[in-house]
Amino acid sequence: MNMLGDNGILLSGASGLIGTALLRAFSLDQFPTVRLVRNQPDSPNAINWNPNDPKDLPGLFRLEGLSAVIHLSGANVSAHRWTVAYKREILQSRVQTTRTLVDLLHRLEKPPRTFLCASAIGIYGSRGDEILSESSPAGQGFLAETCREWETEASRAAQAGMRVVNLRFGVVLSPEGGALRQLLPIFRSGFAGRLGTGRQWMSWITMDDLVRAVAYILQTESIRGPVNLVAPIPVTNAEFTRALAHELRRPAALPVPRFAVRLVFGDMADEALLSSVRAIPERLASSGFHFDHPEIKAALRAIL
Length: 304
Hints:
two-stranded parallel ribbon; Rossmann fold
């Protein structure tokens, strides 16, 4: 981290799963970090902001000359059933907050050198067995359209001279939250199994590799544009199910049929649970990044 200089990083979404992990890593490295928070600041290193108003930031001067911005804000995709209202919240919480933050950065005399903005491999849509790299075109569906608009807003930071990177996250594996934390009690109970046919591809990454990859991207000036933050060996849902059950020493012989997944989760089933996204980290691999956990069995063993 010390290769970034001494000016610090601005972090939004610091209370989320990924934000918390990054904040912990920056703290361990004694790297200065300023958090954007929506509530009353709880420390001198926090700044209150209104994501809907680019003119309402009394502490704007504190953003002058920062090394980088990492923008992670957004409503949790899997936290609620996808009603019309919640889909609107998912979209606005990403697009509007990014627009506001970029507008704020445009007001600076000395903007940060680098702008890292969250995105997701959902931008590719469900593509079956097709191998998807950063050069693959966007797909169809709500998540794909959300990610397209999200990345379009982030790209405006380049107009202020910033290096822009779109962090296209896959399924992040961490026992502290996200999909894995939700799955562990089900698998430990023995009442688990593949979803649908189980043939849909799942592109994943451990939290440790994700944090290392973000630090690597911050330090590698040649990396710009979209970056797939996924392990180099994606797996099918059936393969993941077998690997997790084996690691927990539990059976996983109760498949959940597609109609049941759709009945419970609605639109989210087709776009998040039954969709097939076989993404690979071509840009990270070609730039020389090394994954500590490239293979799912060893990754789950290390995590659990």
